[in-house]
Amino acid sequence: MDRSMMLTSFYFGIFCTLFYSTYTISVYNPRNIFKAIIKLTENLEKEIPEKMTHPILDTPVMHNWEDPFQCLVTYLNTFDNGIERVSEVINGTGIIKRIQKCIQTFKQDCKIMSQTDEECLEPRKRGVNIFVKNFLDFSKFLYKFDFTNKCNETVLYEEDYYVNDIYDVC
User: Which residues of 117-133 are buried (b: 16+ CB within 10 A; e: fewer)?
Assistant: First the structure.
């Protein structure tokens, strides 16, 4: 074997090792991704102020999800594109930034509707709390899911998460 062939084989071996391990983690072993999501969400849950759990009716909250940006609902919908998309969009501050952006959107909506902060923001704070709890439950469910044996099955989350989509976790 000549020197160029040896070098080619060597670099190809390094490439395969690096690529395969990354690919395996992100596609065949998604639990690491979901473990990170769960940790982030649990930390976020601790950061949410107590006043967010104010006992108000949840009905107007669900109605408020239907804003032009589909605010928090779009975060759950990233699962539509599968594990690869999830690994792209979720990072250390992704969830927190999404919620901050949504609260800002809610504030702008309130100004348009000429409501006071208390009247407008309280149900939306409650909505953020609901989102975080649902997101955490959703992530834990995916973490426990048997990807090895059920990878070709389609899983329906609609009943538990009020999402009108069928998510194919594979």
Answer: eeebbbbbbbbbbbbbe
pTM higher than 0.90: no
- Look up residue 135 and give its two tokens: 């997101």
pLDDT tens per residue, range 48-81: 544 343 333 233 333 343 333 333 444 444 434 4
Overall residue count recorded for the chain in this entry? 170
CA 168 – CA 170 distance, rounded (Å): 5
Place of tokens 């949840």: 58
Contact 94, 37 (CB under 8 A): no
At which residue do the structure tokens 């899983």 appear?
Answer: 155
Strand partners, 155: 167
pLDDT tens for each residue of 93-129? 455 555 556 556 656 666 666 666 566 656 556 655 6
3-class secondary-structure state, position 85:
helix
CA 131 to CA 151: how far, in whole Å? 27
